[in-house]
Structure formats: structure tokens, C-alpha cells
Design brief:
The chain is 9% helix and 37% strand. It is mainly β. The protein has four domains: 176 residues, Immunoglobulin-like (Sandwich); 93 residues, Immunoglobulin-like (Sandwich); 248 residues, Metal-dependent hydrolases (TIM Barrel), CATH 3.20.20.140; 104 residues, Immunoglobulins (Immunoglobulin-like, Sandwich). Strands 1, 2, 4, 5, 6, 7, 8, 9, 11, 12 and 13 form an eleven-stranded mixed β-sheet that branches. Strands 22, 23, 24, 31, 32, 35, 37, 38, 40, 41 and 42 form an eleven-stranded mixed β-sheet that branches. A hairpin with a 2-residue loop joins strand 37 and strand 38. Helix 2 packs parallel to helix 3.
């Protein structure tokens, strides 16, 4: 049965009296497997000549096709009693709502057109991934999700239904994609030690990172940090759904890592670190798309995934500006319902395409009553997204308000963004997402969509823009952070995470930290980074006298033992620390940690500094810059 939240987000009307499709297999289906789907539809009422049935296959399945019976996704259809029909498949993947419905936004649509009247009781049998001629079938998504093969009908043959001419069947086919057998354990600890005890999470995952919901077995949990004990053993039953919490006792509050061992594998947590300033480090993603634009799932599901599967501390969605009144109200309600101060914080978000420059922006707000219609008051807004909507000057004027933060999403833009002076609330910039790294031309993990060498963070800083650095996923699976790399119609890099350095886990405290640019970005690993100059946090602006020395404090605790730390000054590397040789000789028990202070002198003019961490496993982290202004 179609989730009613999903039905409303589809925008098309629902029609009663025209039955439902039935699919075999149904229920739980193993991720990344090959399947042959038999989809049947029995007409409970006559269908006129020229009437048609539309079935949308999500992009994350094999592309349906009728040209090559021996290749994946082949479609074959018959009707009993025999009726002349024709099949067309629209494989466009541009993320707009085409005239015939959901093709492009959510998937590729199969249209079965009946060339003669269909009597009541006739049965259509459609095989998607037909194997009768030796084809492998159709590949299903490689990530955990609940997903729908959306069916709609034009029973009259005249496209009279509003919006697209098709009406959605009242009952729909939902498939639950589940993980394979666990081959690893994912351990998550709070990044900052807060008290003598803390709670961690253990998740049993397959090779693709999906939770094995039926896992049964026992983990042995250990920590090699003196004085730290972990409750063990940790025993899972299928009722635990592949995830379970555990306690870490650390009365001395020493930096620690927890490791897990079981018969089939091993896992290691992110570091949990003591701070001296009363701040926490809170992880999350603000850049996730749902059915409200061109992703999967609902805002409620995306926030629940962030909290329960991603183990995020905060989250927001970022559906495109075509959001209807219902879509926005639904998102507002979902955000408010999911908010739990000191446990899980939620923010409002949306994305706007400013295609005067082919530039996208994420917008974040802590105002639960934000009026989107009043804010985005331009005539082309509901036409489509990824088409011209508003000039950049008009966009900046409309968004220049205290309850919004503007975040450039650097996967396109041709560098022309820098021709305009940004408003004061453009405080952050996205350095990494599923598209890749936008640090500079030729950087590690380079962006797929960065189509101009000027469209980079280095150029942004060189132009004098003072933005903190953040990372998101741009996930179109309704699942944020590094849990998936699904970008609506293709795979890219795994999603990134933003770390917010805030006093507490509340919406108000996170907002204060975002405005202060007290953030850093990673490619998804929970690398711990603490970068300060003269005692001031990342994101700060300092004023010093000419030739005054700078005192740099730097602490990095990687998620692996081997990594490189680089200090950038005005976009040039001025100091490198290799954790393998730091300190020298290496101190016992200090593997994977850099904790140092040093002085920079000869500062005669204004400049900026930031830190990049490059791990052996290709994960990266970037601090927000600190700007140093020389007076006199």
C-alpha cells in the first residue's frame, strides 16, 4: 500500500475503482541483486481504446528497454484475453516533471497503450527484467530503502486528469530493499567526551554499507586506552534490527577509540576526544533530496534515517524550490516532530537553482515558521527546476535576511558567481558532496560537475569571500551523509558530513555556531579536527599588529592511523605534518593523533589559514578558515 505521505508528494490525483498492480517478487528483496519482476494488472472496470497504464521504474533499477531481449531490463507484455497493445519507454533522466508524469524526476516510465478497448476482468502481465531469452534480469538498488513502482492510469484515453493526464492507482506496490549478510561492524561514538560515561552505537553492515537487519551474533568490544572500559560482550538477536547501543566508561576522560571483533570481521570507531572549551562536535547533513523534488522517500523518512541509521546529531532536507504549499508544510511538520533538544536537532532547508549562472544554492534556516511562498516570490518558480528562475542579484536580494544562511553548492556555475557581491548571510560554502571535492583545480577526489576552474573554494577565498566550509551528500536516495552515493540517476562519490562545533545540541546553539562559521567538513569519516589561532576557533577573524606572532594550536585524531595534515596560508601549503613520523621518535599509544602547537611569525599583511587532513583510506577533512587581519 502506498504511503499516503508519498501519494500527496506525487502531486497527481488518485483514482478509485481501477484496482492495483501486483508484483512478484514482493516484500523484502536483497540489495544489489538481479530479479525478474512479474507485474500484473487486472482491470476492474473497462478501459477505453487509447487508454494506457504508466509504470515508473526508479532510476536506481536497471533501465527498462524493449530493444534487446538478452540484455538487462528487457520488458515483455501480454494481455489475456489477447488485445493489441504497444509499449513505449521514456528513459529521459533530466530532473523535471515531464508532461507525461514522473519520468526524469524519479525514474523511467513504461507506457502500455491499449490500441483497442479493454474489457473488465482482462489481465495485463508485464515482465520487467525478462529472463526467458537468457538475460540476467533487472538489477535492484544497492542500498537499503523502501521504494515504489508507481503505477498510474489514463482509463479514458483522453488525458483528462489534471497535472499529467494520468491518475495514480489507489493501491501501489512497495518493495523493501534489505542488506546482505553482515561483513563488517560500524561503530559510532560521540566525538567529544562529555562525562564519565558515553553511549556508542554498533551497526552490523554488509560490504555495501547496508545494515543487516536480521543479524544474530556476538561482538567483543575493547579499548586499548588505559582506564577505559566497554560493556561486553554485545549480543545481537534479529529483533535488534542489526543495530545496538553500548556504554563506554571513561572516568579519566582520555581520548579513546573502541574496537569490535567477531567471528567474521572487525571494526573500529571514530575517536572520542576531550576538549577544554566546553564545546561539542556535532555531525550531520543538510543536503538531502526526497520525493518532494527529485529524490526518494519523505522528509520524515530522511530525518529518521539520519537519526537512526546515520547516527547524525542534526539533519535537514534540501528539496528544490518547486515545493508546493503542501510539500513545505509537510517538511515543516516533519522537522518540528523530529526535533529533540540535546538528542537530535533539525533545521529547515531547501535548494534554489539560479540558472542565470547555472548555480545552485542550499538554504538553511532555524526558523520553523519560515514562509517559503513569501520568500520565493517569483513567477517562474513552479515551472520546473534546473531552468531559468531568477537572476543572481534578485536571488541575493530575496535571501538577504537574518533567519537564512546561504550555502553555494559548487557543482556548477562557471565561476560567474564571483561577479556579484554576496550578502552578509552567505556564511558557508560546500566544499564536498556526492559530486566530489571543489577545493581547487586538480585537487584530490575532484568534482564531476565542476565545469570551470574558477568555480572553487580557493578562488572564493582569493576573492575575499569569508565562508566557513561544510560538506553534504546531495543524496537523492533520501539518505544523508556517507551511507549512500546515489545522485538521482547515477552513482558518484559517497556523501560528506558537516561537523558543527557548538556549545550544546540545540537548534539555537547550532545556529549560533553556523553563523560563526565554527564548522568543518569531511568526506564522510568522523575525523576529529581542532584548529585555533591565538586561542580563536576556526571560522574566526583576528586582528593583529604587523609582525605579531601567531600561536597555532592543532589537534587531529584520524579514523585511521596514517594521515597527512597540511596547513594552508593564502591557498598555499606552508606546513605539513605526517602522522607516521610525528612526534619523532613516535610516542607509544599516539598512533593516529597529531596534537601540537607552533608559532608563525613574519606576519606583515592580512591572510587566511585552513587545515586539510588526508587519510590513507582517501578520506579528507577541511577546517573552516581563520582570517588574520593586520592593522597598522
Amino acid at each position: 500500500m502506498l504511503n499516503q505521505d508519498v501519494a500527496r508528494l506525487m502531486h497527481e490525483e488518485t483514482i478509485d475503482g481501477y484496482g492495483a498492480i501486483r508484483t512478484t517478487p514482493d516484500g523484502d528483496i536483497t540489495a544489489d541483486s538481479w530479479q525478474e519482476f512479474t507485474i500484473t494488472y487486472t482491470a476492474p472496470a473497462p478501459i477505453a481504446k487509447g487508454g494506457s497504464l504508466r509504470l515508473t521504474i526508479p532510476h536506481c533499477f536497471s533501465t527498462p528497454q524493449t530493444d534487446a531481449p538478452a540484455l538487462p531490463g528487457f520488458v515483455r507484455a501480454t494481455v489475456t484475453p489477447a488485445i493489441d497493445l504497444s509499449i513505449t519507454i521514456d528513459v529521459r533522466y533530466t530532473c523535471i516533471f515531464f508532461e507525461n508524469g514522473h519520468t526524469g524526476k524519479f525514474g523511467k516510465s513504461i507506457f502500455v497503450v491499449f490500441n483497442e478497448p479493454v474489457p473488465q476482468g482482462a489481465t495485463l502481465t508485464l515482465r520487467y527484467g525478462d529472463r526467458s531469452t537468457g538475460a540476467p534480469g533487472a538489477k535492484v538498488p544497492y542500498f537499503n530503502c523502501t521504494i515504489y513502482l508507481l503505477a498510474a492510469i489514463d482509463p479514458h484515453g483522453d488525458r483528462r486528469a489534471p497535472y499529467s493526464g494520468y491518475s495514480m492507482l489507489a493501491d501501489q506496490c512497495g518493495l523493501r530493499i534489505v542488506g546482505k549478510r553482515a561483513s563488517a561492524v560500524r561503530l559510532v561514538l560521540p566525538s567529544v567526551i562529555n562525562g564519565d560515561a558515553s553511549t556508542g552505537t554498533a551497526q552490523m553492515v554488509d560490504a555495501l554499507g547496508n545494515i543487516d537487519r536480521g543479524f544474530a551474533g556476538t561482538l567483543q568490544l575493547i579499548s586499548e586506552t588505559p582506564g577505559v572500559t566497554v560493556a561486553q560482550p554485545l549480543t545481537f538477536t534479529p529483533q535488534d534490527g542489526g543495530a545496538k547501543s553500548f556504554q563506554v566508561i571513561n572516568p579519566s576522560r582520555r581520548d579513546c577509540v573502541v574496537e569490535a571483533v567477531w567471528d567474521d570481521g572487525y571494526g573500529s570507531s571514530n575517536p572520542s576526544v576531550a576538549r577544554d572549551d566546553g564545546h561539542g562536535v556535532y555531525w550531520g547533513d543538510y543536503h538531502v533530496h526526497t520525493y518532494a523534488s527529485d529524490g526518494l522517500g519523505t522528509a520524515r523518512e530522511a530525518l529518521a534515517h539520519a537519526r537512526d541509521t546515520g547516527c547524525f546529531n542534526f539533519a535537514a532536507t534540501a528539496d528544490h524550490e518547486i515545493l508546493t504549499k503542501y510539500d513545505w508544510a509537510y517538511a515543516q511538520t516533519a522537522v518540528q516532530d523530529a526535533y529533540r533538544p540535546h538528542a537530535f536537532a533539525t533545521l529547515l532547508g531547501f535548494e534554489v537553482s539560479v540558472h542565470e549562472l547555472s548555480q545552485d544554492y542550499c538554504l538553511i534556516s532555524a526558523n520553523p515558521d519560515l514562509n517559503l511562498d513569501a520568500l520565493l516570490d517569483f513567477p517562474t518558480r513552479h515551472k520546473t527546476y534546473h531552468s531559468p528562475v531568477v537572476t543572481l542579484a534578485e536571488f541575493y536580494r530575496m535571501m538577504d535576511r537574518e533567519d537564512i544562511i546561504i550555502v553555494p553548492h559548487f557543482h556548477c556555475g562557471h565561476g560567474k558567481i564571483f561577479d556579484h557581491t554576496p550578502p552578509a548571510n552567505l556564511r558557508l560554502a560546500e566544499i564536498y558532496s556526492c559530486w566530489g571535492n571543489h577545493e581547487y583545480e586538480g585537487c584530490p577526489l575532484p568534482s564531476y560537475g565542476n565545469d570551470h576552474k574558477l568555480n572553487t573554494i580557493h578562488n572564493l577565498l582569493a576573492k575575499g569571500w569569508r565562508c566557513g566550509l561544510v560538506a553534504g551528500s546531495d543524496s537523492h536516495a533520501g539518505q544523508g551523509g556517507p551511507t549512500t552515493d546515489w545522485l538521482r540517476s547515477r552513482q558518484r562519490y559517497r556523501g560528506g558530513l558537516t561537523a558543527i562545533v557548538a556549545k550544546e545540541l540545540t537548534r539555537e546553539s547550532l545556529w549560533e555556531a553556523l553563523l560563526a562559521r565554527r564548522t568543518y567538513a569531511t568526506t564522510g569519516a568522523r575525523i576529529y579536527v581542532d584548529f585555533r589561532i591565538n586561542g580563536q576557533h576556526m571560522g574566526s577573524e583576528l586582528k593583529i599588529r604587523k609582525d605579531e606572532k601567531l600561536q597555532v594550536r592543532l589537534k587531529v585524531h584520524g579514523t585511521v592511523n596514517d594521515f597527512l595534515v597540511e596547513l594552508f596560508e593564502n591557498n598555499r601549503i606552508v606546513r605539513t605534518i605526517d602522522v607516521i613520523t610525528y612526534p619523532y621518535p613516535p610516542a607509544l599509544g599516539r598512533n593516529g593523533i597529531v596534537d601540537t602547537e607552533f608559532t608563525l611569525d613574519g606576519i606583515t599583511d592580512s591572510r587566511w589559514y585552513y587545515v586539510r587532513v588526508s587519510q590513507r583510506d582517501w578520506h579528507l577533512a577541511w577546517s573552516s578558515p581563520i582570517w588574520v587581519d593586520v592593522e597598522g
